[in-house]
């Protein structure tokens, strides 16, 4: 109550249409490493190296003194067990003083959205002024384990006393040596892979193969145009040392194909009649991102001109089997409702492209009276203007390092608002477990 | 083998390598077996950086207590490896101690061993001290360099030489130690003794060199050595247990002192450095281990010592006499017994202390110590520098700066040049990580201090900008102007030139008082020397700030004052106006080599074919040899003995050094010596050109030069006036 009574000095109310509480939280700067196909230039690094590069790049770009950062949060999905709190390890490597607390969050493909949401919460609750939120995914190396039987035998070996039982255990280990366990690609709860589920989703919302392929080509084309025009300002080059030293400056997954070529590909999940192929699904990617989130007062006091306001966020969760990837359809209307805005007020949409079919299915769902009535108990949201969606490409073309994508979406939204002169932008993304997020971003100083 | 490396230096890096070799080498099994039989004592963890960290010291100590009877053997093995056990002694409280997993073992074992009870309290006492807990002082007594504090029945001897940073083992200290020790030895209430330093970061840094230089003759030095032996022997033979508690530098004589104690514990910290004694003062350390490894004299002579000797010769080419003597001493200790070994050691010590090599090396030590001091006053603080040009030198300069925690902006006009420089730094640091000199975290934190960019505006916050671009005056002018247009007015502009006069470079500057030369030597990461070159207008503060940075970078700093006349002189030197003094060779040979595309490493062939960079792929380049043959001149026979060849080359360099002193380019002979040894690789065992003249004889050198001048061009070998004067008067530089 006390705080509410205080006048907000130096803080401009950007829009009176939106009710809000607490401090204004801003995005000061967002950077990312170039996103690369797994197994390419980053392949000899570790996830922590990439996250370190992103953190370092952020500090270089903002020229902020390391000790002014109050907290660091990073998102990641497939953990390297040596660096399970990867935020801490990366921050130490990136030169942050050991006095800065760091923690790691995970929520599948929206992990770094969680990091950003945490940062917002920390600032609103007066715990912190400046927080770094980031994320990383490194698909060039994943923890491949001995299978359970072998692991069990190995652990049992310590307890085995006599030679006979030791030998027996050794035999058990040897027997299981060649059938390792890979990181799960299927949903734990349903046992279904994400691609399979997406294929079913696309079919349920009547998204054709052709539409999907076209959407994929659109994504690559838009990304290529944006990259060529130098719009992807969040990219910071990564220098890789070694005998063949090189500086990685751009994403390497953008590849504009022809519709003929794309339609010739075989389905990847549901064979032979599925519609999702390698070309209209996002690929395995290495990459990291980081952004500086701060209170508006702090940003101005430290001489920064923020990129955007971070206004609202809404996490949602659905049935992890039949609506695994349908969360954007729920999240977008809810976050808008929260802010008292309608679809028309939004000039920029950045929707995470896990699969072309998944994005299109979500768009169809929001435009379906039946779906909206049945599942959200409301009238239909309507069709989003395609021109507002992912105008600089998306995860299909730029790539999708699970833990890092959220900040990339944020950077695109903020930069697009500036470039296109819009007021509000919405981020929406789906994630394993039937999760999803919607975030409302407002242009700064407009 | 161990013995070989004992002499190469007191640096722990060598120690590391050697100990590693010993443990992992051909006789590992034998050592292990021996160990098992006698002690089962060590858990080697020879993987740490400068000092050897034996992390499991508590185990070690427990075992050590258990193995009381075998202690002597344990000690010998440790001595042989040149290792001490290192304690992980950062114990915040005694509670912490009792929570250690090892403590039950500790207690049970101690309690079953009545004999070790006083030791237990002794060790606990050490722990209390090192963890800075208050000590209940019952009685205390002090000498000028040694204080004695008592806790219960344990006496704590603290070495603290007043008014110096490092403790050194000199006459005063050894006298005081002796007295204090006598007193404690005869005091029945004292059950055990802890020996430690009163200074936080120096146990004992070694023997006092001035004491050595004071030795009048061979017999005097011999006496010193044998007295030292006796003192250490008394410590070792004491009935009361003595524990050395080590933190900070424990080098040479200091290490011997620690060795002479019965137990050693040390703080596991980077500042704790252990180093073997210098060349001259190595006791017959190896006798027992060697005999344990091999009792067979044939094997000893033909395998162990031969290997050691070969290695010594390979590394020293016979220019350093001490290592070979050490081997003799070791042999004598094994064959003739310790008494004879010790006698021989002090005899050789006396002889070696008075060799020319000893004089030269002591001179270098003093000279380099002098160059590590800041004699130039307080400069402005340097928080950030910029290096323009990311070539070999530029990247090297950035490297030695970021690893001292100073932010450096590395600039280059083109991206590929920048990447090369960046890679040079990162590869260098990664190698240090691979060799465990740095941890990954330390490396990355160093890298954070580096900003590599092609954006020149990024240098705007620099306190010093060092340009290391190509040696071309007009280019340097352009760069200086460009730098000054970006940086703050008080920023120093340093130029890393080896050939161009600073005064000429400063002509382009709007603020010549801020212009200075900082001449690093390649490779910057390794070469210790930094020449700071001033011109007449350079301000004092600029000199002080540049020198301060150089010292921070860990360099030996020599300030060269170059007035206008000398600048002129250097310019003429370059344009060939010195003519005959630098003549004699035919530069056409280089023109031909370059024309044939043999540009050295750059083009992968020059005098050598460098191959693919793998070991052994570098071979002499036959084509280059052909070119050389073309220009070959027959040498006059009477000046071509091996010694003449050596002196002929050397004397011209020395002569130029003489001119430098004569013309005031350098202010004192030791600067010239340091610059020559650390900058251009003058043989260290001769100590530098000035020391060489002293040792070799000015007159003899002048005679030689006269002889060469008759065989060659007169002017090439005309001795500088100062050299002629010294030859006539018999005066010495030192």
From TrEMBL, chain A:
It comes from Mesorhabditis spiculigera. Belongs to the thiolase-like superfamily. Thiolase family. GO terms for biological process: fatty acid beta-oxidation. GO terms for molecular function: acetyl-CoA C-acyltransferase activity. Pathway: Lipid metabolism; fatty acid beta-oxidation. Residues 25-297 form the Thiolase N-terminal domain. It is found in: Mitochondrion. Keywords: Acyltransferase, Cytoplasm, Fatty acid metabolism, Lipid metabolism, Mitochondrion, Transferase. It comes from the Eukaryota. Signal peptide: none annotated. Residues 304-442 form the Thiolase C-terminal domain. Its main location: mitochondrion. The active site is at residues 109, 400, 430. CDD domains: thiolase. SUPFAM superfamilies: Thiolase-like. Gene3D superfamilies: 3.40.47.10. This is acetyl-CoA C-acyltransferase. PANTHER family: ACETYL-COA C-ACYLTRANSFERASE, TRIFUNCTIONAL ENZYME SUBUNIT BETA, MITOCHONDRIAL. Its EC number is 2.3.1.16. GO terms for cellular component: mitochondrion.
TrEMBL record, chain B:
Residues 385-561 form the 3-hydroxyacyl-CoA dehydrogenase NAD binding domain. The keyword NAD applies. It is found in: Mitochondrion matrix. Pathway: Lipid metabolism; fatty acid beta-oxidation. GO terms for biological process: fatty acid beta-oxidation. It comes from the Eukaryota. Residues 648-731 form the 3-hydroxyacyl-CoA dehydrogenase C-terminal domain. Pfam families: 3HCDH, 3HCDH_N, ECH_1. It catalyses: (3S)-hydroxydecanoyl-CoA + NAD(+) = 3-oxodecanoyl-CoA + NADH + H(+); (3S)-hydroxyhexadecanoyl-CoA = (2E)-hexadecenoyl-CoA + H2O; a (3S)-3-hydroxyacyl-CoA + NAD(+) = a 3-oxoacyl-CoA + NADH + H(+); (3S)-hydroxyhexadecanoyl-CoA + NAD(+) = 3-oxohexadecanoyl-CoA + NADH + H(+). SUPFAM superfamilies: 6-phosphogluconate dehydrogenase C-terminal domain-like, ClpP/crotonase, NAD(P)-binding Rossmann-fold domains. Keywords: Fatty acid metabolism, Lipid metabolism, Lyase, Multifunctional enzyme, NAD, Oxidoreductase. CDD domains: crotonase-like (cd06558). One of its GO terms (molecular function) is long-chain (3S)-3-hydroxyacyl-CoA dehydrogenase (NAD+) activity. Transmembrane segments: none annotated. One of its GO terms (cellular component) is mitochondrial fatty acid beta-oxidation multienzyme complex. Gene3D superfamilies: 2-enoyl-CoA Hydratase, Chain A, domain 1, N-(1-d-carboxylethyl)-l-norvaline Dehydrogenase, domain 2, NAD(P)-binding Rossmann-like Domain. The keyword Lyase applies. PANTHER family: TRIFUNCTIONAL ENZYME SUBUNIT ALPHA, TRIFUNCTIONAL ENZYME SUBUNIT ALPHA, MITOCHONDRIAL. In the central section; belongs to the 3-hydroxyacyl-CoA dehydrogenase family. Homodimer. This is Enoyl-CoA hydratase. It comes from Mesorhabditis spiculigera.
């Amino acid at each position: 109550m006390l705080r509410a009574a205080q006048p907000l000095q130096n803080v401009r109310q950007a829009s009176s249409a939106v009710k809000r509480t607490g401090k204004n939280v801003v995005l000061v700067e967002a950077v990312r490493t170039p996103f690369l196909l797994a197994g390419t230039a980053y392949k000899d690094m570790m996830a922590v190296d990439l996250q370190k590069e992103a953190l370092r790049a952020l500090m270089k770009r903002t020229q902020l003194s390391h000790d002014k950062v109050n907290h660091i949060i990073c998102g990641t999905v497939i953990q390297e067990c040596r660096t399970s709190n990867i935020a801490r390890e990366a921050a130490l490597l990136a030169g942050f003083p050991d006095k800065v607390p760091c923690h790691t969050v995970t929520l599948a493909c929206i992990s770094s959205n969680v990091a950003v949401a945490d940062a917002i919460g920390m600032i609103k609750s007066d715990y912190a002024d400046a927080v770094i939120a980031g994320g990383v995914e490194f698909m060039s190396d994943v923890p491949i384990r001995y299978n359970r039987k072998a692991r069990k035998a190995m652990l049992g070996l310590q307890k085995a006393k006599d030679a006979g039982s030791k030998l027996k255990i050794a035999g058990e280990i040897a027997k299981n040596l060649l059938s390792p366990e890979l990181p799960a690609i299927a949903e734990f709860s349903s046992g279904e892979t994400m691609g399979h589920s997406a294929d079913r989703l696309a079919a349920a919302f009547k998204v054709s193969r052709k539409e999907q392929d076209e959407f994929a080509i659109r994504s690559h084309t838009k990304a290529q145009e944006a990259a060529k025009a130098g719009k992807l300002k969040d990219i910071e080059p990564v220098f890789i040392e070694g005998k063949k030293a090189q500086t990685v400056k751009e994403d390497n997954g953008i590849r504009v194909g022809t519709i003929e070529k794309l339609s010739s590909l075989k389905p990847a999940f549901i064979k032979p009649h599925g519609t999702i192929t390698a070309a209209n699904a996002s690929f395995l990617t290495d990459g990291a991102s980081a952004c500086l989130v701060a209170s508006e007062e702090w940003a101005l006091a430290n001489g920064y001109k923020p990129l955007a306001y971070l206004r609202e966020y809404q996490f949602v969760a659905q049935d992890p089997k039949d609506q695994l990837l349908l969360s954007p359809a729920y999240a977008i209307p809810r976050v808008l409702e929260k802010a008292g805005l309608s679809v028309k007020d939004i000039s920029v949409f950045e929707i995470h492209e896990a699969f072309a079919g998944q994005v299109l299915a979500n768009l169809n769902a929001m435009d379906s009276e039946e779906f909206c009535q049945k599942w959200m108990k409301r009238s239909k949201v309507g069709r989003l203007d395609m021109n507002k969606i992912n105008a600089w490409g998306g995860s299909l073309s730029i790539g999708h390092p699970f833990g890092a994508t959220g900040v990339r979406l944020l950077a695109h939204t903020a930069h697009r608002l500036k470039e296109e002169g819009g007021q509000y932008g919405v981020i929406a993304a789906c994630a394993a477990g039937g999760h999803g997020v919607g975030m409302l971003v407002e242009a700064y100083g407009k | 083998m161990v013995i070989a490396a004992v002499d190469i230096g007191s640096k722990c890096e060598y120690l590391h390598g050697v100990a590693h070799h010993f443990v992992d080498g051909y006789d590992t099994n034998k050592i292990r077996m021996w160990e098992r039989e006698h002690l089962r004592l060590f858990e080697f963890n020879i993987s740490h950086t400068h000092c050897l960290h034996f992390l499991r010291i508590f185990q070690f100590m427990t075992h050590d207590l258990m193995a009381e009877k075998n202690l002597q053997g344990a000690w010998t093995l440790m001595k042989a490896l040149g290792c001490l056990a290192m304690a992980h002694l950062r114990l915040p409280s005694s509670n912490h101690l009792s929570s250690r997993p090892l403590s039950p073992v500790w207690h049970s074992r101690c309690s079953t061993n009545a004999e070790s009870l006083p030791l237990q309290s002794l060790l606990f006492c050490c722990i209390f001290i090192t963890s800075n807990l208050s000590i209940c002082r019952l009685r205390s007594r002090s000498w000028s360099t040694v204080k004695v504090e008592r806790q219960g029945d344990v006496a704590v001897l603290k070495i603290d030489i007043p008014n110096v940073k490092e403790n050194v083992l000199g006459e005063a200290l050894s006298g005081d130690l002796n007295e204090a020790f006598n007193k404690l030895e005869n005091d029945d209430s004292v059950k055990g003794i802890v020996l430690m330093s009163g200074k936080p970061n120096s146990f004992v840094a070694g023997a006092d060199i001035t004491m050595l230089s004071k030795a009048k003759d061979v017999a005097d030095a011999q006496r010193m050595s044998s007295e030292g032996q006796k003192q250490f022997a008394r410590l070792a033979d004491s009935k009361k247990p003595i524990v050395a508690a080590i933190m900070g530098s424990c080098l040479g004589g200091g290490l011997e002192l620690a060795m002479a104690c019965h137990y050693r514990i040390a703080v596991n910290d980077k500042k704790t450095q252990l180093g073997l004694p210098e060349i001259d003062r190595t006791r017959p350390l190896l006798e027992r281990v060697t005999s344990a490894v091999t009792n067979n004299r044939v094997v000893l002579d033909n395998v162990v010592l031969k290997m050691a000797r070969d290695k010594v010769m390979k590394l020293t080419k016979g220019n350093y006499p001490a290592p070979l003597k050490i081997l003799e001493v070791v042999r004598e200790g094994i064959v003739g017994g310790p008494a004879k070994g010790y006698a021989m050691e002090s005899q050789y010590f006396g002889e070696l202390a008075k060799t020319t090599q000893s004089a030269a090396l002591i001179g270098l030590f003093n000279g380099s110590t002098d160059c590590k001091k800041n004699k130039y006053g307080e400069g402005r603080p340097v928080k950030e520098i910029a290096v323009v040009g990311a070539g070999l030198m530029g990247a090297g300069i950035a490297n030695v700066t970021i690893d001292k925690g100073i932010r450096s902006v590395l600039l280059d006009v083109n991206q590929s040049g920048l990447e090369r420089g960046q890679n040079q730094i990162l590869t260098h640091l990664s190698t240090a990580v691979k060799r465990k000199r740095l941890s990954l975290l330390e490396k990355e934190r160093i890298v954070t201090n580096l900003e590599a960019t092609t954006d020149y505006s990024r240098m705007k916050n620099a306190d010093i900008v060092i340009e290391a671009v190509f040696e071309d005056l007009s280019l340097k002018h352009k760069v200086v102007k460009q730098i000054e247009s970006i940086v703050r007015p008080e920023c120093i502009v340093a130029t890393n030139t080896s050939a161009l006069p600073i005064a000429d470079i400063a002509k382009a500057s709007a603020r010549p008082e801020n212009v200075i030369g900082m001449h690093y030597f390649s490779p910057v990461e390794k070469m210790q020397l930094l020449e700071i070159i001033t011109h007449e207008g350079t301000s004092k503060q600029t000199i002080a700030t540049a020198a301060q940075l150089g010292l921070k970078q860990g360099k030996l700093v020599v300030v060269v004052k170059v007035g206008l006349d000398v600048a002129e002189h250097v310019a003429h030197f370059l344009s060939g106006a010195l003519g005959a003094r630098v003549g004699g060779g035919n530069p056409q040979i280089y023109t031909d080599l370059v024309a044939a595309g043999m540009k050295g490493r750059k083009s992968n062939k020059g005098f050598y074919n460098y191959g693919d960079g793998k070991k052994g792929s570098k071979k002499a380049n036959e084509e280059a040899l052909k070119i050389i043959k073309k220009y070959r001149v027959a040498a006059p026979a009477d000046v071509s003995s091996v010694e003449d060849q050596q002196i002929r080359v050397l004397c011209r360099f020395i002569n130029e050094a003489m001119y430098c002193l004569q013309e005031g380019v350098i202010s004192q002979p030791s600067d010239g010596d340091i610059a020559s040894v650390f900058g251009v690789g003058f043989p260290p065992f001769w100590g530098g050109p000035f020391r060489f003249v002293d040792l070799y004889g000015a007159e003899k050198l002048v005679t030689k030069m006269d002889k060469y001048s008759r065989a060659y061009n007169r002017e090439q070998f005309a001795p500088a006036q100062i050299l002629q004067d010294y030859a006539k008067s018999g005066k010495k530089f030192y």
